[in-house]
Each structure stands twice: as C-alpha cells, then as structure tokens.
Design brief:
heterodimer; A: mainly alpha; MetI-like fold; two-stranded antiparallel sheet; 15 helices; 2 strands; B: 2 domains; 16 helices; 74% helix; globular
C-alpha cells in the first residue's frame, strides 16, 4: 500500500496546493458551521447553548418576516426567470447565426455587469421624483409610485427589477440544449402534420427538461440567497419590508456579532434549499433519452 | 434551421418581441452611461434627458461655430468623472479590484490545472474519493458558510487585507471540475509519448497538458475574472478599511455617502461595468462554453 502511494507521489503533489486551500477555506468552514449554530459567542469565550439559537430563530418575528419576504420573492422570480429564459431561447433559436449572437449578447450583458451596478441603476430608475420608471408611467397617465420608500411597493419593486433583468445564463443553457436536439425528430413530427407550436410543445419542451430542472434548482437557490440587490436598492427597508434571509444573516452576524444565531439561520436556509432542490428534482425529472 | 422557417409574419413577430425585450434588458446599462455624462444640472430633472446634451448638442454647436459652448458641454459631461476620480478613492478601489481579480485568475489557472491534470491523467490510491469530496462541496451555497468562513479568516489574521478576499476565491473547486472534464478529452497517448521521450512529470504538465488545455483554461480564466471582479457579499464582510475596498464595496460606500448625487453614482457604476462589458464582448464564445460545461455537471 505505502509502496503504491510512494510510487504515485507526483499525483498527490500536483493536487497538494489546491487541496491545502480547499481544506482551510472550504472543509474547515463546513465542519465549523456544524458547531457554530450550537454555540453563543461572547467577547470572552464561547458557550454551548444546544438548540437555543434555533428556538430563537423560530420565535423571532424578524426571522419570519425575512422568510416571508424571501418566499414571496422566490415564488415569483424563480418560475418567471425559467419561463422567460425558455421563451426567449425558443424565439432566438430559429434565427440566423448573426441575429442569435446579437440577442444572446443583449440578454447576457446585464448578467455580466455586476449585480451591484444593476441594482444601483434600478435604485435610480425607481427614484420617485426624477426616476425613469415614474416618467414612463407618467406618459401613460399613471400617478407617480413611491417605489422604494413605501412598504407596500418596496418588495414589489425588487421583484419587478429581478423579473425585468433577463436570465442570461438560462437563455444560453437553453440555446445549447435546443441545439443538440436532432432535426430528425422535427421532420418526423412535420410528416405527421404537427404544427410549429405542437412541435415546440411536444418535442422541444420535453427534451430540454434536464436544463429546466437544472435552472429551476439553480434559480431557486439563487432567489433564496438574494442579497446584493436588496442591499443596494433598499438596505432591507423601509422598516423590514425587504429584509431577506441572507440580508438578515448578514446583519445579525456582522452588525450585531451574534455568530451563533446567524449560524443557526444559515443552517435553516441550507436545509430549506436542499429540501426544495430534492422536491423539484422529484417533480420535474423523468428520464430523457433520445438518439442523435 | 429549416424546420422552423416560419412565414414572414411569424419571423417579424419574433423579431419584434425580441427587440422589445432586448431594449428593456439594455435600458439600465444605457441609463448608467447616459446619466454619468449628463450636465450636472440636467441629471435630476423632469422630464429626464433621454439623450444627454453632450451627444445631442455638441455637433450642432460645433457646426454653428460656437466652439466655447461646445467645450463647456464636454466639460460638464465629464464633471461626474472628475469628481469621482479626484474626490473619492475610486482609483484605489479600481486598482484593488484589478489586482485581486488578476491574482485570483492567475492563481486559479495554475492551481486548478495542476489538480485537474492529476485527477484526469494520473493513477493513485484515493484519487476518486478526493475528487468527489471536492466536487461534492460545490452543492453547498457559499452564503451558508459566511460565519465560519469569517472565523477562519479572522483566525488567520488576514481580515482587512486583500488576502481575505483572494484566498477564499482561490479555494473554489469549480475550476478543478471544469478542467478535469476538459483534460479527459486529451488523448493519454500524448502523455505516454512525452514520457518515453524522457519528459519529467512537471514537464508533461507544463509542455503537453497546459498547451493542449488552452481553450479550457481560457474559459475558466474569463469566468474567474468576471466572478472575482463582481463579487460583493464576501468582500463587504471581509474588508472594512476603505483603502482595501474592492470596486463593488466601494460603490456601496459611495452610495451611502452620496445618496442623491446620481451623476457621481452612475459614473462609479460605469467604471465598474466597462471592463466586464469589454471582456464579455471580446470573449463571448468562452462565456457560452464555460456556462454549458459548468451547467451539465454530474
């Protein structure tokens, strides 16, 4: 055994630098996270508190407010982004190569410009007196809306911004998936007299299902972790109207320095994300097989 | 795409929908740039100037021979940028971001290609186990580990230094996975041939694998640079000293201090966005490849 390991030593040496970093900054935090949530951190030493951080979370109105805001955001943004990606990709796919490149770039550019930049400009667009949004609404005769500073509208504004920012990654993945569907399937359907919508509904949509599942899971995880845009557009306000789970974790951990409590909320978030991902894969997955 | 060659009306409708949506998609970026070059007294006005004066009025003024008015217009358009670079720490933040993103990209390419070479082309006990441990952690979202990550960084005494931002980025495993998949497609015969010619293991890595893996390395490099440049939450936590802020964190502070100077804020946003837009437009194919390779992970 040792001889085999010694003989293969160069294999380990090539991995070593990465593995050291991985251990320190990934494995150690993962193991540590298992302890953090059962402890309370004080200036002098730590104390085991059992499940108290979790109980605190369940009894904390602000935590539930953050959960409810996050859910309301995720329930709209996740399906919207997957459906918009599917529809836009389906429209782009039949176009000529040049037009495909143009639209793919237009829809991906906002993804590539940082989320902070996009959130900053939306804060400006949603400005009540001079913002672009109220100007365009004014042209339609709609009264100005107090987008970001009223609790009735703030969360809706963040959701609206998320829906209007195109799902660049999803579009690119769908286009790749659609490109790999064999033409023969569509020809067969055409011979059977299926119109274009039926071809899309009966062939394209089922065959890109693995991509749909992947995007559903990834964007669920993404919307459960929404932070950047909330931080830049509303800071969680007004009051706690747009506080999300990660925003709450950030404030509890790095403003109030309650590491144990923040750790417990992180664990709950992780559990929720894993459970949702499992449910989605049960619901959506079915074996897709086709021969090219 | 013969199968979907629709009637002309159908194609027209498709183009219409796509163009409208593309406009909605690009308006925010357009508004970043135009706001940043509005005349200072024309930023917050109603109705808003959809086309900044410097663009709509410069040429007419020049043609009318009013050179001074035209120059004043350019001067006004650059006012926000002048303020940004003279009165804020923008230069510093830009350099910090550049330094960290370049280091992260170079480091990731070196470390991940070495590890990927070993995982893809070498035999040793525990290889598959180590690989799956690394890849398995990719399912854990980073936001869940903020608190323990901060504790690690604090123990190492690197809070408020660029290391606190750089080291966690270098420990990401996505690149190992991506490059391993890529290197598996490189024929092993090439390695055997080099070995017979007397190449050392490092020589095989450096002279055979790295050149052949260049497309994969380019893809990973561009994705790493973008995500490093744009990362926000972790740098916000790890660095509280403004001299070591990265650009996105600097923008946050800029916004906190200049809540309503939208010209200045949009100039800052433009400075952060331009490098990414250039990188994307020059290397679009690599983004597509990186996303599709990363999207079909096992």
């Amino acid at each position: 055994m040792f001889k085999r390991i010694w003989k293969a030593r160069s294999g380990y040496l090539f991995i070593l630098p990465k593995f050291i970093l991985f251990t320190v900054f990934v494995l150690v935090p993962i193991v540590w996270s298992l302890f953090v949530s059962f402890q309370e951190y004080r200036i002098f030493g730590t104390e085991w508190v059992g499940l108290r951080n979790f109980i605190d979370a369940f009894q904390d109105d602000l935590f539930w407010q953050a959960v409810s805001n996050t859910l309301r955001y995720a329930v709209v943004v996740t399906p919207a982004s997957v459906i918009i990606a599917l529809v836009l990709a389906s429209l782009i796919h039949p176009l000529r190569a040049g037009a495909q490149t143009f639209f793919r770039a237009s829809f991906y550019l906002p993804t590539v410009a940082s989320s902070v930049v996009i959130a900053m400009v939306w804060r400006w667009i949603f400005q009540t007196r001079f913002g672009l949004a109220n100007y365009f609404l004014g042209l339609l005769g709609v009264e100005p809306i107090n987008w970001l500073h009223s609790s009735a509208w703030a969360l809706k504004s963040v959701i609206l911004m998320a829906v209007l920012t195109p799902p660049g990654t999803g579009i690119i993945l769908y286009l790749a998936a659609m490109g790999s569907i064999p033409d023969s399937l569509y020809e067969a359907a055409r011979i059977d007299g299926a119109n274009r919508f039926m071809q899309w509904w009966k062939i394209t949509v089922p065959l890109v299902r693995p991509t749909t599942l992947y995007l559903l899971i990834v964007s669920t995880i993404g919307s459960f972790q929404v932070f950047d845009r909330v931080m830049m557009m509303t800071q969680g306000g007004p009051g706690y109207a747009t506080t999300t789970i990660v925003h709450r974790i950030y404030n509890v951990a790095f403003r109030d320095f309650q590491f144990g409590y923040a750790g417990a909320m992180s664990m709950l978030l992780f559990a929720a994300v894993i459970i949702l991902a499992l449910i989605q894969s049960k619901l959506v997955s079915s074996d897709v097989e086709y021969k090219g | 795409m013969k199968r979907l060659r629709a009637s002309n009306v159908g194609i027209a409708i498709i183009y219409l929908v796509l163009i409208v949506w593309a406009i909605i998609s690009l308006i925010p970026l357009y508004w970043v740039f135009t706001t940043s070059i509005q005349q200072p007294d024309e930023v917050a006005i109603m109705p808003p100037k959809l086309i900044p004066s410097v663009i709509s009025r410069y040429l007419p003024l020049r043609l009318a021979g009013e050179k001074e008015a035209a120059t004043a217009l350019v001067d006004g358009a650059l006012e926000s940028y002048r303020l940004l670079f003279r009165k804020t720490q923008m230069n510093r933040w830009f350099l910090n971001s550049l330094l960290i993103s370049i280091s992260a990209t170079a480091g990731i390419l070196l470390l991940d290609s070495m590890a990927a070479f070993s995982f893809a082309k070498k035999e040793f006990p525990g290889r598959d186990f180590l690989f799956w441990v690394m890849v398995g952690t990719m399912t854990i979202p980073g936001q869940v580990l903020l608190v323990p990550m901060f504790m690690v960084v604090r123990e190492l005494n690197v809070v408020n230094t660029p290391w606190a931002v750089l080291l966690p980025q270098l420990s990401m495993v996505f690149g190992v996975f991506l490059l391993k998949q890529f290197m598996l497609t490189i024929p092993s015969e090439l390695i055997e041939a080099a070995r017979i010619d007397g190449a050392s293991e490092f020589g095989i890595y450096w002279r055979v694998m790295v050149p052949l893996a260049k497309p994969g390395l380019a893809t990973l490099g561009i994705l790493t640079f973008t995500s490093s440049w744009n990362s926000f939450l972790w740098p916000l936590i790890a660095i509280q000293k403004s001299e070591w802020f990265t650009l996105p964190v600097g923008l946050k502070m800029l916004q906190d201090q200049n809540l309503v100077n939208y010209g200045l804020l949009m100039a800052g946003a433009a400075v952060a966005a331009v490098p990414m837009i250039i990188v994307f437009l020059s290397f679009q194919q690599y983004f597509v490849k990186g996303l599709t390779l990363g999207g079909v992970k096992g």
